[in-house]
Amino acid sequence: MTRKKSTNPNLRSSAGAVFGAVLRRLREAKGVSQGELAALVPCSRPHVSRIEAGTRTPPEDFVITADELLETGGQLMALWKEIDWYARVEHPDWFRRYAGFEEKASTICEFQIARISGLLQTEAYARALFESGSAAGNPELIEERVTSRLARQHRLTSPDDGPLFMVVHSEAAIRSLVGGPEVMYEQLGHLLRMGELPDIVHQIAPFTLGARAPFGTPMSLITSPDGKTRIYSESLDYGHFIEDPREVQRTQRTYDLLQANALSPRESAALIRSVREGLLNMAPIKANASKAPWRKSSYSDNNGGLCVEVADGHPGQLVRDSKDPEGPVLTFSPNSWQSFVDAIRANEFPTPNC
Prior knowledge:
Layout: H1 9-29, H2 34-40, H3 45-53, H4 60-70, H5 75-82, H6 93-104, E1 107-112, H7 123-131, H8 139-151, E2 164-170, H9 171-175, H10 181-194, E3 200-205, E4 219-223, E5 229-234, E6 239-242, H11 245-261, H12 265-278, E7 308-312, E8 317-321, E9 330-332, H13 334-345
Parallel strand pairs: 1-2, 2-3
Antiparallel strand pairs: 1-4, 4-5, 5-6, 7-8, 8-9
């Protein structure tokens, strides 16, 4: 659905507050607390609180999940599509020219070294960056910059005029722990989903490339509808363009070689999934263990034997001692748990002599 952009940020804030109020009423009608909804989505309780207060833009996947959990019949998604979440925000002078070209680009090629591309950042990831950057300590400026960054992303999913977006991230970008394990887990999941879109090609330049990773700074090649390509690169406090055709041709050739040497999109997705699963051991359990559908082995009896219980949780498999249901809960990635179960079925573990 194409949305008309608003130039009034107060209108966006008011609409966000309406969405939050509707979410709160639907949640309360089902008798679900903010914490319980957060555990089931999953996300943090403060995230739900900010969405209901109208100060946080709800991601699309949050809205879809909340609709399902609260059994709204799609009310939240219908409202979400009507709201203009992309209010225009003034960019810094040095960035304004780039934003203008990006808005109309037919093709964008990017290389990012230590951070996820701004066009693929989640709200939480972008906020974590701004909170530790030059806007630190200035909540209004942080919110303005987060809104600006999210507003740039809408064309990627536009069915009408979205650009072809090709991006190569250094492996460092997906391994740098921005905002903590929960934020990175969400961010990497977003990368995987965006990489499945037909007009987005996402690759990882692994550490093993070494000197074959040719660019020392983040850079973009932006092609306008008239066929003209410009190079854009950015330092700490300013950005600049290069339009010399010879330099553009040389950089495009270098970028093509980088794509050839990087992991394929399929291999890149596999690496991202691997890094993402590793974050499960660092993040707290998201599921509400008391309400999880716990089950024991069919071989178990009711005599209080040595048993464990398992449950399908978010984002992994939950395991606890059946004799101590209020005790510690372990979480395992889905792949790790399935490998364990397969090994047991194949009798690959040694058994004590009886």
